[in-house]
Each structure stands twice: as C-alpha cells, then as structure tokens.
Amino acid sequence: MQKKLVILGAGESGIGAALLGKQQGYDVFVSDGGVIKDIYRQELAVNHIPFEEGHHSWDIILNTDEIVKSPGIPEKNELMKKVREMQVPVISEIELAYRFSKDKKIIAITGSNGKSTTTALTFHIFETAGLNVAMVGNIGLSYARQVATAPVDYYVVEISSFQLDDIKEFKPNVAILLNITPDHLDRYDYKMENYVASKFRIAMNQGPEDYFVYCKDDPEIIKHLEKQTIYSTTIPFTIMEPLKQGGFMANEQVNIQVNDEPVIVSMYDLALKGKHNLYNSMAAGIAGRTMDIRKEKIRESLTSFKSLEHRMEYVASVRGIDFINDSKATNVNSLWFALESMETPVVLIMGGVDKGNDYSAIRELVKEKVKAIVCLGVDNAPIREALSNDTPLMIDTRNMKDAVQAAFKHAAKGDVVLLSPACASFDLFKNYEDRGRQFKEAVREL
C-alpha cells in the first residue's frame, strides 16, 4: 500500500518535499493554514498533488504515516501538540531529501550568523573545481526540490536549527558549525542550552569517516563540546593561535591545514573582508580540502568570490560616500559583525520589528564607529532607549527613501552609509530582500 505523507506548510521547502514525495511514490497531501502563493499553488495543480489552504483538516493530518513539517511552524501550535500527542512521525524536509540522496556527498552548514555567505562560498569553491554541485536549503532552491528535479553529486546545504530539530538519520559528510549566539530563543523555551543542543544535532549521526568543522573561538561551541561526544573527525578553525590541523591565522595569512596540502592566502587577497569573513573563508576552505579539492582551486575561489545580495553588498559610491546593503542582518549579532568590519566612519540605517533585541552588545562599536543612526521602523523607541547616548545624532524615518536621504545628508566623503537593520522587516517591507532592493533603488535615485 502507498505510504501516506502529509506536508505542513506550502513554502519553498514544503513544495520541494511534495514534489520529491510524489516522485518517490508517496500518497502526498499538502496542508497550509495560510494562503499559498500563486506560483506554488500552480505547481501543486500541475503535478496533481492534492492540497488545502486557509485551514488544516485534522482527520487527514492525524491519520497519515508521516508528516513533513515546515521549519516555520512552532511546536506550541495546537495542531503540532495534537500531532505529538498522537505520536505521528514528524520529519523535516532536509530529512526527506537526505533519504533519497544519501549516496551523494553532503556539506551541511549551520550557525547563528554567516551561514548564507559560507554556503555560497563553499558552493563557489566546488563549482570552480568543476564538480557537479548544487547550493540548497535556506538559500535558493529547497534541498528536496533539487533532489527531485535535478540531482547532483555534491549538495552544499544551508540549515537552520528549526530544520535540524526534525532530523532522524540525516548525516552530512561534512558538518560546519560557524558560531552560536542567542537567536530564536522564543522557540527554545528561552533556554540557550536548548538552542545550542539543536545546532549540534548537525553532527549527531556522523561517524569517523565524516568531518565536524567548528569555530574554536566560540565560547558556546567549546562549552558544549565538553559535554557532547563527537564521533566524526573534528577540524577546528581559529584566529587566535596556530594549529597543526584546521584553519588558522599566521603572519596575516589564512592557513588551511587539512589532508597534507596547506592552502595559504593573504588576508588582504580574500574577496570577503572583515574579521567574521576570515572565519567564513576558513570554514569553506576546510570543506573544500576534506573533499580533496586542489589548493590552487581553493585559493582562486577565496580571492574571486562575489558577495551575496543583501549581505554586506556594495551598492554604489555617491560623492565619495560608499553605500552598503546588509538587509539580511536581522539580529544584533549580524549588525555587530557588520560594524566590526568597518574601517571608516559609519552612518547606520537600522530598525524594524524588534525581536526583544539586547543592543548592549553593540554599544562599544556604535560609540567607536557610528556618527549617526537613522532609525527606520514603525516603532523606533527600543533603539532610541538603548543607543541614543552612544552616538551624536539619531533621526526617525518611516520609509526607505527618507532614510537614505537623511543618511546621505549626514555622511561626508570617505564615510560609509550602512543598511544593517538588526531587526526583522515586516513592519514596512515584505521581507529583507524587499527592504534591500528598496535601499538600492533609493541610493540610485540620489
């Protein structure tokens, strides 16, 4: 008899899971409590996959063999409580995709910040080396869609903690853990240790033939490593000390020492600037070496990579003022990394939907580097309360055009105008991409 598969949530990961499930012979049903985007609704119709939207049919959902849950659905949801109570097996789309690609090579990347950049850079290294590779997960196409429609030999997968919460057997050949800082704690009972444990699930099924690549300078990672046994081959990276095996800095050069062929690149030649990108470059370079990609190809990739849209993306220089779009910075830590990499005075555009942000972490950097803050949001009070004593000037704006013009007015030649909001975008924009595009448009109109 056909195995019944219910997919909760019809975003990119849900649709990918539906296509893969159907292709593999499951009896698939898609249920979304909200409105399904037209493009996804058409895809379901064309592929003859039954679906519902605007409600959930509990009788169908609770009588299935397995559920693929969208990472956006919290466990506190009434339906999920019932699903758990009835002990219906739940997996993530990542798990389903893995089930049908486990004979391929998988490089999985997680962390609170830098995931997308490191995923894109790792993909760039593998592509430059001529390998048959795809970049999937939280960036681009869903992993399941890629497996269903255009399978490859190497998958570079960006994974969030929510996706890791529902894996069972998922076992990447290389697991990269970049860093862990407080984020999404509302989904983890406001307990940091729950969030950390969730991130570490990336390595839970690995064996000695696999690699666990981690940042040795991250206190949360180090603390957790003392408690958890890792069964794979561990490879650290650090900017604090030389290592026999792993990634490290020496004489202002990035050194990647893996599998007897060291890769050495001057930090000044790296395509990605800033301290946080030293870590991202090391992690990606280590992934390349674990797969025996030649050092020349890794060096070439690390120096030729173009950064991603909305992630420290250079937009233009207007009258000697550089404009940088970092709209993807939706938490305080991302803003910290952005400010930390700045070497000239900054006019900062920030604000949006505040997820209970603690701005104290950036106060010193704001004092040191920020000459004005342009607040962009419906409610700018939290930013004003936290940072008004740390910068000479604060301006309130309610749309992107005004924000960019105010920033331009208060910036001087040689300064940087940085959009790095540290907040979600939903008060004034569709999403962070929309916010970033409006920023670029406003800059071009100056």
Automatic annotation (TrEMBL):
Its EC number is 6.3.2.9. One of its GO terms (molecular function) is ATP binding. ATP binds at residues 111-117. InterPro entries: Mur-like_cat_sf (IPR036565), Mur_ligase_C (IPR004101), Mur_ligase_C_dom_sf (IPR036615), Mur_ligase_cen (IPR013221), MurD (IPR005762). It comes from the Bacteria. The keyword Cell cycle applies. Its main location: cytoplasm. One of its GO terms (biological process) is cell wall organization. Keywords: ATP-binding, Cell cycle, Cell division, Cell shape, Cell wall biogenesis/degradation, Cytoplasm, Ligase, Nucleotide-binding, Peptidoglycan synthesis. Residues 109-287 form the Mur ligase central domain. It is an enzyme of class 6 (ligase). It is found in: Cytoplasm. Cell wall formation. Catalyzes the addition of glutamate to the nucleotide precursor UDP-N-acetylmuramoyl-L-alanine (UMA). This is UDP-N-acetylmuramoylalanine--D-glutamate ligase. It comes from Chitinophaga oryziterrae.
